[in-house]
Amino acid sequence: MPDLKIVEEKPINLAQLKEELKEIKKRDDELGFRTAKVSEQLEVLKVIKEKDAEELFQKIEKLSIPRLKDVHICKIIDLLPSSMVELKNITSGYSLTINNENLEKILKLVEDYRPKKK
Fold it and tell me: What SS3 class is residue 93?
């Protein structure tokens, strides 16, 4: 096996992963074992559209919240929290503290992208 070199490490959200897997499937005709399992799981999960995920990412990024990085934003987009408690649980997984005012701003943005209950 050739030596592989990591050129760039960038977090992606589930919507972007789903699109990447579609591209791999077009290119290779068939997914490998692990990628097929990931693809199956993504079909079960309710993942927002890639366009919406990019739009939400840009909006959260424009808030300029201190210490909030791309990886945190991607996790928020993946989980689309509906309450302050859920959002605090997401951020508590990292060594990250965000004040309540900024958390409320994030929740307000996420609210527009969360699937509506029937």
Answer: coil
The reported pLDDT for the residue numbered 117 is: 65
How many angstroms separate the CA atoms of 14 and 41, rounded?
A: 11
- pLDDT grade for 2, boundaries at 50, 70 and 90: confident
Q: Cα(91)–Cα(84) distance, rounded to whole angstroms? A: 11
pTM comes to 0.83
Quote the DSSP letter at residue 94. T
Q: What fold does the segment set 50-111 form as a domain? A: DNA polymerase; domain 1 (1.10.150)
Domain residue spans of the chain:
14-44, 50-111
Please provide residue 9's backbone torsions phi and psi, each rounded to the nearest 5 degrees.
-120, 115
Helical pair 14-28 and 70-79, crossing angle rounded to 10 deg: 90
